[in-house]
Amino acid sequence: MGGAYSFIKGGMQIMGYLWVVTIGFVICLGLVGGILLYFISTAFNLNDASSIDLLDRRKEE
């Protein structure tokens, strides 16, 4: 019975390690995705695009 107990205990440690790795991976993906979306949104600069667009000026006139 001692061998089965140590196997279960070792499996639980591995499972805990896998949960920590999974949560860390999800956090890293969130950070990378957030940074990517931030830089993409600043590259588009929607305020500048609306001030340059001539079609909007024609609608106002």
How many angstroms does the end-to-end distance come to? 87 Å
N-to-C SSE string, H for helix and E for strand? HHH
DSSP summary, beta strand count = 0
Major sheet size, sense and barrel closure: none
Instruction: Give the helix level as a range of percent.
Output: over 70%
Give Rg in angstroms.
26 Å
The gross shape turns out to be rod-shaped
Mean pLDDT: 77
The DSSP helix count reads: 3
Q: Low-confidence runs (pLDDT<50, min 5 residues)?
A: none
What class do helices, strands and sheet pairing give? mainly alpha
- Strand fraction equals under 5%
Question: What descriptors fit this protein?
Answer:
61 residues, 0% strand, 3 helices, mainly alpha, rod-shaped
Write structural notes for this entry.
The structure is a single chain. This protein is mainly α. The model has no long low-confidence stretch (mean pLDDT 77). The chain is built from three helices and no strands. The chain has helices at residues 2-44, 46-52, 54-60. It has a domain at 21-61. The radius of gyration is 26 Å and the shape is rod-shaped.
What is the element layout, followed by pairings?
Blueprint: H1 2-44, H2 46-52, H3 54-60
Short description:
The protein has 61 residues and is mostly helical.
